[in-house]
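Aggregate trends can hide what the representation actually does to any particular protein. This step matters because it turns folding into a mapping between discrete strings. For completeness, the protein is quoted in full, as a sequence line and a line of structure tokens:
=====
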Amino acid sequence: MTSRSPKKSTQASGDGAPAAPTYVLRLYVTGATARSRRAILNISTICKEQLEGRYDLEVIDIHQRPALAKDEQVLAAPTLIKSLPLPLRRIIGDLSDHEKVLYGLDIQPKNTGRKAPS
């Protein structure tokens, strides 16, 4: 189960403003478990809402590609690794707390029309 999201160009805009960085993310999961599916859905939602095509997301099943997990020293799954922009970050779990995931990835949340918790 390896999937990639298309990466769009992040060149400077026509007004000379610097381009926003592209996020390079790898999500390590263990098969098609409920927890793995939740993690995939959660990070996909976060990327679509917050990064608007400025991301490259690869989902890796550690049962199918254990060497990659070993190389990255992944000890638990699901594990999300952000390799770019620096610094490298790791987030373990199903990524259901979107606010904490955004904080961990150094992403300033956009207003998505959701109500803030009261």
